[in-house]
């Protein structure tokens, strides 16, 4: 990269100077070795393309992309890991693939390298860790891995794709040199890790696989974890330390490297990991500070993982050292690269944290670590420097960097606010800068990366009116961050939706710290204020909300983890998180870790799905959440679909434009919240129950508070196409009752064909169902649809409506009861022919009903049918009230055939066709005069029908057409229905429909 | 309620508990069964319930039982059930009884011999009866009556526990009958099918092996099912079996069987004697039989209208409705006989016009086309031998046996 020149600049640290040296060579080798274009383009591509992937990650953090928080971390790591492979692959395959290929050439030197890379690629998201593990096991792989580590470490700190590549290249280049070092480290790692890797891998794999959907996030997590765990001795150790270090810095508390790692893990959305981490000493202190209760629970839950962590940390003293070294390098890097990391919000937190505090921590950490493996550290630092250098040089990155710089500064300021006032000053002014920068960053940032947390911080500062407030704000922020890091929610939280804490310190603290009702906290007054007060900017509003949720989440996390170890609770939390992929995954991972390490992958996916679904099911679910969820899905499904993202954002904006409705909703909910169990808690509870129910737990369905899950629609469109719901309904596409009424009128007065009306009515029914509206309107809709369905011969649809109507009538809702009782009887008599149904239906008829014209008619039809009285049947057919005719229509053919059979057996010698015409209802006349008038209408049709059914017709002396009864009695048959369809119901045939209804 | 001292209450409860545990340990179902008969209103259980009201801490006493771990799960809900039942809280009583019954079933599975069959019968019966009571209570308070359904699924579990090889299988039919009762009450008769299938197709069951009373009950219910299906021959067979094997002392049961057997017999052309109808107080069928005898369609319709509710509820309405054709046949036969008396040579030609007139006398307004149609159907269904000459509007009857008797065959066969 051109950044070589820059590298020296970056290399502030003494070590880095060495690194610089190394780095330059690396860079050169990089360019030369790579088909320069590949790596470079790829790197550039990273900026853009990879940025999609990477940005994605940031987005997660931001909550824009939901999942990306971790992704960022992962992105950095992953990007480093492009070398590492799996991580990258998971996140942004597209971007990575080219990279990996590019990296492969680099790897020429070490075969193992290539293998490892390949493995990564192959592994893709999940399996990558395992493969890596395999690699580790193999000696050859180790070396390459070690090189990778270097690269990884480099990359991770920079977290820039371009840098990563460079780093990777550098690594390869340096790798030779470092190999020996790495080797040592690897040996160390081996000793320590051997046991670890497997465990870790299993767990990782599961988590990663489970997270396959949000592969990016998951992979990110896995990477982190792995790194942390040292499963991938090299990568893991490096990144983990890095992360840890960053986290530790963030925490600013007396966090050891371990604690740092802890926080990092947590931040990386690896909640389970976090929990695991608690055992580590550093973390413990940490947790105590942030959440006293949470810590123990975590440990207990994820004992397995903690062990790994512990082991790594403890046993891996050597590994640690290496890690530390890396960390130190990292720290340095962050400092150097501060601007860069900022760009990638993924790094955001870590980087930010690391920025200021890193120096200190890094230094301290480095010292011990470095001592042990001095050699290693040197190479590492070099590589890092290189990477750093490269990063700044990239022109494309530059703009982003600038923005990110600001943000990072802010963040760092916030983080270290208490500790480092200098930052504060910087941060305060920056909000405005950020906003502008955001605009500048424009599409890219928005679509991919808007740093939600930065925004959150911005927002929080934006409302500060004076210095005192600012400082208060800062301290609160700081607290929040510590909390978040402790919880590990920092990266996973949706800062966009997190409510801003209220400025009065007490409240904010309360909300943050207060344990029990997370949901309540979320929607607590503070949030609203924050949400609606500063809205001036729509974006701001969004972010505010995200932030709010964040804080709430933090609180929740603490509580939840402490109190509830159940997966469910976590799920609910994740839900509350507003669809943060990362968050969810973390929770899922936790779950998985808790429950079954090995088996989980699929389940996790399912979990995530269900949870998201349930989320959507929330009545109050802001479009925020849903959109996030959908985003999350989208991101999971299509790894890089920034357009989708954008679209959703637009939607969101729209929503805010329509804010009134939303507000109304909110206000609706508030009163409930005020009274006892808040709506949200209720909802959460209900969700929990629903969740657990789905999960196979034995909670009764009736225990679920469905009321709290009911959707309130906001859509004002009268016309809406019917789409079978495949996920929870979106209130913004559901019409409220008034609109539905209009829609019904529209359908009733519409001149369009049945297909259209059916579609519209189904969508109306759906909206009614979704909102659980059951009143006269519901009855009217079903009645309308039932009638239309009858007219069109759509019996299945009619039956659906009929059964709903029965239920509604039974609940005492008024409607055309008699009419439909008659239909019901007819459809039993003529179509289902179920005697006990008929009996019970007849038993239910009141005396009044039996006097009703339509019901009487139905009963008469019954007796006609049961005795086979075709004359009576066709008379009733001609005189049917309401739409009874249409129901009888479907029985006419059968009745006619039976009648002709009967006639051919009982008449001799002949029967006039004219008579049959009348008897079997071919003519319009009700009464047959039985004159020999051959001009009766319908005779031809009757003749045709008779011939079609095998009747033998003759012409007598008078030229009158006769049915030869005796001859016919043996030749009659029921012809195959010409319009028969495969599924046995001709009325379902679309063509037929169209002809009949248009 | 007279004042009950704490000591007396304590004594009664411990007495009950010791009797219970003795019965179990000595495997004496005769002693055990009455202890489970919650709804029997026996004096001992009533006094026990009073004692339970006084002495609240019965669980402690239960805990002192030997083998308490197994029996406590049965007894402690059972005690609560007895208490609730006495207080008239049937829904509560049902809930705890089901718990006790489940625990009992668990134990029952573990007992190798079927000694406790009687006790299980008692429980099965109590479950059903109490569920019905609980549902009535729930319905009257506007709640969803679902206990009987729960009882159904519990009984199904009991049936599953019995329907296997081994000596316990003899009890399966009793439980099956209880299940039928539940399903008929719930109107979910289709659920009977699986039970019937396992009884009639599984080789482990030798039908004659079952107790007679269960066989009668079983035949009664399956016969009723066949009536629903209008499978009159099989229904006749089953109901006749039930009637023949029904204890002669159980008049009420015989009447219940006859309630279905008579319509079935009618529809295959066999009319009951008047004394039978009177003896079992089934006068609602009296008019129906008369209508068939006389060929009086009006009378038949009257009778059907009059007893419509009853017939609908018992499910024979549709069967009786179909007797119309028999009445028509009788009417035409009467005309034929009259014509024969007048002019034997032309007797086999019955003018449709005459039938219309005859119906008019019965105040039934039917035009000639309809009559023609009905005659056609009669011919089609083998109730009349002959043919219709459409042009001349005449029914030409066969000279041999123009009105064949059903002789135990259903109409239309």
From TrEMBL, chain A:
Low complexity compositional bias, start-end: 31-53
Positions of region (Disordered): 1-80, 270-301, 512-537, 594-627
Top-rank lineage group of the source organism: Eukaryota
PROSITE patterns cross-referenced by the UniProt entry: PCI
Biased composition (Polar residues): 60-80, 608-620
Record field: compositional bias (Basic residues): 520-530
InterPro entries found in the cross-reference section: PCI_dom (IPR000717), SAC3/GANP/THP3 (IPR045107), SAC3/GANP/THP3_conserved (IPR005062)
Stretches assigned to the PCI domain: 794-979
Protein name in the entry: PCI domain-containing protein
From TrEMBL, chain B:
PANTHER family: PCI DOMAIN-CONTAINING PROTEIN 2, UNCHARACTERIZED PROTEASOME COMPONENT REGION PCI-CONTAINING
A single MF term (Gene Ontology): RNA binding
Protein name per the record: (wild Malaysian banana) hypothetical protein
Database matches in SMART domains: PAM
Domain of life: Eukaryota
One GO term (biological process): ethylene-activated signaling pathway
Gene Ontology CC: transcription export complex 2
Coiled coil, from the record: none
One Pfam family from the record: PCI
Domain PCI: residue ranges: 216-402
């Amino acid at each position: 990269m051109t950044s070589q020149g820059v590298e020296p600049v970056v290399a502030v640290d003494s070590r880095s100077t060495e690194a610089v040296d190394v780095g330059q060579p690396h860079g050169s080798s990089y360019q030369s070795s790579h088909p320069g274009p590949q790596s470079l383009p790829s790197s550039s591509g990273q900026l853009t393309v990879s940025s999609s992937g990477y940005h994605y990650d940031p987005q997660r953090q931001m909550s824009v992309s939901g999942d990306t928080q971790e992704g960022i971390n992962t992105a950095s790591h992953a990007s480093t890991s492009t070398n590492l492979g799996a991580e990258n692959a998971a996140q942004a395959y597209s971007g990575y693939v080219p990279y990996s290929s590019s990296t492969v050439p680099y790897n020429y030197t070490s075969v193992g390298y290539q293998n490892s890379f390949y493995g990564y690629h192959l592994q893709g998201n999940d399996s990558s860790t395992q493969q890596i593990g395999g690699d580790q096991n193999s000696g050859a792989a180790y070396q390459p891995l070690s090189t990778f580590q270097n690269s990884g470490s480099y990359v991770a700190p920079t977290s820039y794709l371009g840098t990563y590549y460079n780093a990777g290249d550098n690594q390869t280049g340096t790798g030779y040199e470092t190999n020996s070092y790495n080797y040592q480290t690897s040996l160390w790692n081996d000793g320590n890790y051997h046991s670890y890797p497997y465990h870790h891998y299993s767990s990782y794999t599961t988590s990663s696989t489970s997270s396959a959907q949000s592969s990016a996030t998951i992979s990110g997590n896995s990477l982190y974890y792995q790194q942390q765990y040292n499963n991938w001795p090299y990568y893991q150790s490096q990144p983990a330390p890095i992360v840890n270090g960053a986290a530790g810095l963030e925490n600013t508390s007396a966090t050891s490297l371990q604690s740092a790692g802890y926080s990092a893990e947590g931040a990386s959305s690896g909640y389970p990991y976090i929990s695991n981490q608690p055992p580590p000493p550093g973390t413990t202190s940490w947790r105590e500070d942030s959440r006293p209760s949470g810590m123990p629970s975590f440990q207990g839950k994820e004992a397995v993982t903690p062990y790994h962590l512990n082991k790594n940390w403890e046993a891996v003293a050597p590994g640690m050292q290496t890690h530390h070294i890396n960390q130190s390098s990292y720290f340095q890097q962050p400092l150097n690269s501060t601007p860069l990391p900022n760009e990638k919000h993924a790094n955001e937190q870590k980087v930010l944290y690391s920025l200021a505090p890193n120096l200190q921590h890094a230094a301290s950490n480095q010292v011990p670590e470095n001592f042990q493996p001095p050699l290693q550290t040197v190479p590492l630092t070099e590589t890092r420097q290189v990477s750093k250098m490269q990063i700044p040089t990239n022109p494309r990155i530059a703009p982003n960097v600038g923005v990110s710089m600001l943000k990072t500064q802010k963040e760092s300021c916030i983080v270290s606010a208490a500790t480092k006032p200098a930052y504060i000053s910087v941060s305060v002014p920056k909000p405005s800068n950020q906003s502008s920068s955001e605009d500048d960053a424009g599409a890219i940032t928005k679509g991919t990366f808007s740093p939600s947390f930065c925004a959150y911080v911005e927002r929080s500062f934006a409302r500060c009116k004076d210095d005192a407030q600012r400082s208060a704000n800062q301290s609160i922020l700081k607290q929040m961050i510590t909390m978040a890091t402790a919880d590990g929610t920092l990266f996973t939280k949706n800062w966009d939706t997190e409510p801003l804490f209220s400025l009065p310190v007490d409240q904010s603290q309360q909300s943050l710290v207060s344990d029990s009702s997370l949901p309540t906290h979320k929607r607590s007054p503070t949030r609203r204020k924050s949400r609606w007060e500063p809205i001036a900017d729509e974006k701001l509003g969004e972010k505010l909300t995200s932030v709010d949720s964040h804080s709430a989440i933090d609180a929740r996390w603490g509580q939840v983890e402490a109190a509830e170890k159940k997966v469910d609770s976590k799920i609910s939390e994740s839900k509350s998180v507003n669809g943060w992929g990362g968050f969810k995954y973390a929770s899922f991972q936790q779950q998985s870790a808790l429950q079954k390490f090995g088996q989980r992958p699929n389940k996790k996916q399912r979990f995530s799905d269900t949870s998201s679904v349930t989320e959507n099911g929330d009545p109050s679910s802001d479009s925020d959440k849903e959109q996030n969820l959908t985003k999350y899905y989208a991101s999971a499904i299509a790894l890089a679909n920034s357009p989708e993202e954008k679209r959703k954002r637009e939607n969101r904006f729209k929503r805010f434009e329509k804010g009134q409705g939303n507000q109304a909703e909110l206000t609706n909910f508030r009163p409930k919240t005020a009274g006892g169990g808040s709506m949200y808690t209720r909802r959460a509870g209900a969700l929990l129950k629903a969740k657990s129910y789905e999960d196979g737990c034995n909670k009764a369905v009736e225990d679920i508070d469905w009321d709290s899950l009911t959707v309130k629609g906001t859509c004002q469109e009268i016309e809406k196409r019917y789409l079978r719901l495949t996920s929870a309904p979106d209130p913004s596409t559901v019409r409220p009752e008034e609109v539905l009424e209009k829609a019904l009128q529209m359908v009733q007065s519409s001149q369009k064909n049945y297909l259209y009306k059916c579609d519209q009515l189904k969508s109306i029914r759906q909206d009614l169902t979704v909102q659980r509206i059951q009143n006269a309107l519901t009855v009217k809709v079903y009645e309308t649809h039932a009638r239309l369905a009858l007219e069109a011969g759509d019996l299945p649809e009619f039956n659906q409506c009929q059964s709903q109507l029965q239920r509604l009538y039974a609940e005492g809702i008024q409607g055309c009861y008699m009419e439909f009782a008659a239909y019901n009887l007819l459809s039993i008599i003529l179509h289902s022919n179920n005697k006990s149904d008929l009996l019970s239906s007849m038993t239910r008829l009141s005396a009044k009903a039996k006097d009703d014209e339509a019901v009487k008619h139905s009963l008469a039809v019954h007796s006609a049918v049961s005795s086979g009285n075709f004359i009576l049947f066709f008379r009733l057919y001609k005189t049917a009230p309401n739409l009874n005719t249409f129901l009888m229509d479907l029985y006419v053919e059968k009745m006619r055939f039976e009648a002709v059979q009967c006639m051919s057996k009982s008449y001799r010698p002949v029967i006039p066709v004219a008579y049959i015409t009348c008897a079997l209802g071919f003519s319009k006349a009700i009464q047959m005069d039985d004159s020999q008038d051959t001009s009766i209408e319908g005779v031809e049709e009757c003749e045709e029908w008779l011939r079609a059914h095998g009747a033998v017709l003759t012409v007598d002396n008078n030229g009158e057409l006769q049915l030869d009864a005796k001859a016919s009695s043996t030749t009659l048959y029921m012809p195959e229905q010409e319009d028969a369809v495969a599924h046995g119901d001709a009325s379902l045939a679309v063509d037929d429909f169209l002809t009949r209804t248009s | 309620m007279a004042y009950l001292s704490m000591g007396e209450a304590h004594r009664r409860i411990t007495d009950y508990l010791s009797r219970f545990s003795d019965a179990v340990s000595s495997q004496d179902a005769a002693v055990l069964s009455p202890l489970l008969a919650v709804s029997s209103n026996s004096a001992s259980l009533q006094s026990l319930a009073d004692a339970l009201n006084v002495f609240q801490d019965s669980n402690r006493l239960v805990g002192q039982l030997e083998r308490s771990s197994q029996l406590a799960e049965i007894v402690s809900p059972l005690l609560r059930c007895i208490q609730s039942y006495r207080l008239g809280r049937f829904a509560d009583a049902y809930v705890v009884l089901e718990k006790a019954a489940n625990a009992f079933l668990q134990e029952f599975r573990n007992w190798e011999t079927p000694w406790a069959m009687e006790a299980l019968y008692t429980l099965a019966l109590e479950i059903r009866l109490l569920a019905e009571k609980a549902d009535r209570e729930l319905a009257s308070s506007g709640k969803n009556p679902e206990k009987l359904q729960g009882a159904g699924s519990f009984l199904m579990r009991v049936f599953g526990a019995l329907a296997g090889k081994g000596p316990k299988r003899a009890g399966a039919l009793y439980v099956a009958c209880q299940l039928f009762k539940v399903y008929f009450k719930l109107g979910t008769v289709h659920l009977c099918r699986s039970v019937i299938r396992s009884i009639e197709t599984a080789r482990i069951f030798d039908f004659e092996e079952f107790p007679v009373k269960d066989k009668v009950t079983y035949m009664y219910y399956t016969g009723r099912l066949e009536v629903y299906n209008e499978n009159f021959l099989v229904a006749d067979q089953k109901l006749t079996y039930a009637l023949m094997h029904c204890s002669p002392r159980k008049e009420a049961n015989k009447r219940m069987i006859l309630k279905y057997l008579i319509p079935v017999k009618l529809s295959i052309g066999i009319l009951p004697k008047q004394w039978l109808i009177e003896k079992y107080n089934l006068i609602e069928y009296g008019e129906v039989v008369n209508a068939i005898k006389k060929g009086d369609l009006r009378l038949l319709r009257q009778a059907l209208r009059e007893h419509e509710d009853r017939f609908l509820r018992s499910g024979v309405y549709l069967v009786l409705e179909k007797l119309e054709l028999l009445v028509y046949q009788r009417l035409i036969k009467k005309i034929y006989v009259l014509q024969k008396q007048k002019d034997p040579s032309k007797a086999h030609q019955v003018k449709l016009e005459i039938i219309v007139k005859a119906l008019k006398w019965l105040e039934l307004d039917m035009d000639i086309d309809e009559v023609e149609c009905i005659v056609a159907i009669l011919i089609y269904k083998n109730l009349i031998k002959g043919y219709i000459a459409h042009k001349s509007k005449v029914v030409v009857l066969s000279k041999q046996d123009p009105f064949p008797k059903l002789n135990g065959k259903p109409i239309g066969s």
